[in-house]
């Protein structure tokens, strides 16, 4: 009997905590509505990948107790997605090859169960959907995968409306059994957090080795973390390079990289992403 009374008391405490959590959730939604009212974007959905990453990273870092950090991160991602939905429906163009729904799963895990997803059979279709405005974001394969289409070269144009890389998935640090990762593109600039990577498209003279490209980047003050892909053309080569830190279009190092025009002919900033949470970040 005493044990049953103790259980009833604890269950009552859980109910009161649930009510308190729900009250705070409703208050948070009210603040989000006020933020949306102050924005001058005509009611359009504005995603802030960097700000969202900072929120999740801060919550995970301050966490204590036995509640699993990976579950906490996923819970907060769903919360953020629901709050974004208050401002408007998020639509996604998702690369979905004939076999497997892995990219759809990655998109749903990050952007929540309420997001509208349209599958496309090629990366090029995803880029076009975002560029034309029929999707807020696009989910694309990592460029070092052998998927046959060099979608990143289409981001190297001069138009200011071209999609830019803004996120890398999964962000929560949860490694999939198939090792699948993705990049997210949107028609907005990269949102720096202080713990970031940038992507550069670099056009060089032919026959430039990876070692020489690394040396040229280093001489310009850029630290490459990955040489992800190379597209060999007859008169020039295109390289996709990941750089440590957040770059802006007016970064002096980019001008220094091309000032001699040998071997670098031009470079284009394709965006960047907040560094995902690591397994160590999510460890108990």
UniProtKB/TrEMBL annotation:
The lineage of its organism: unclassified sequences, metagenomes, ecological metagenomes. GO terms for biological process: chorismate metabolic process. It comes from mine drainage metagenome. Residues 1-91 form the Chorismate mutase domain. It holds the Pfam family CM_2. Coiled coil: none annotated. GO terms for molecular function: chorismate mutase activity. This is Chorismate mutase domain-containing protein. SUPFAM superfamilies: Chorismate mutase II.
């Amino acid at each position: 009997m005493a044990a049953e009374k103790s259980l009833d008391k604890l269950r009552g405490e859980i109910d009161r905590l649930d009510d308190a959590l729900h009250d705070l959730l409703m208050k948070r939604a009210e603040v989000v509505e006020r933020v949306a009212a102050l924005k001058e974007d005509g009611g359009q959905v504005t995603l802030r990948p960097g700000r969202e990453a900072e929120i999740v990273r801060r919550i995970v870092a301050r966490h204590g107790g036995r509640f699993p950090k990976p579950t906490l991160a996923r819970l907060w991602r769903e919360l953020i997605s629901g709050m974004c939905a208050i401002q408007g429906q998020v639509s996604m163009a998702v690369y979905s090859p004939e076999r497997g729904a892995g990219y759809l799963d990655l998109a749903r895990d990050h952007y929540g169960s309420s997001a509208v997803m349209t599958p496309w059979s090629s990366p090029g279709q995803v880029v076009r959907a975002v560029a034309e405005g029929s999707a807020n974001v696009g989910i694309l394969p990592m460029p070092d995968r052998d998927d046959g289409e060099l979608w990143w070269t289409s981001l190297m144009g001069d138009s200011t409306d071209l999609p830019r890389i803004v996120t890398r998935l999964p962000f929560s640090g949860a490694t999939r059994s198939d090792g699948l990762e993705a990049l997210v593109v949107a028609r907005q600039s990269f949102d720096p957090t202080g713990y970031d990577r940038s992507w550069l498209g670099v056009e060089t003279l032919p026959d430039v080795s990876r070692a020489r490209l690394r040396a040229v980047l280093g001489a310009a003050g850029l630290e490459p973390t990955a040489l992800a892909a190379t597209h060999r053309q007859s008169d020039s080569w295109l390289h996709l390079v990941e750089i440590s830190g957040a770059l802006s279009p007016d970064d002096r190092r980019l001008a220094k990289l091309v000032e001699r025009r040998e071997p670098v002919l031009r470079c284009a900033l394709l965006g960047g992403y907040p560094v995902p949470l690591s397994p160590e970040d999510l460890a108990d």
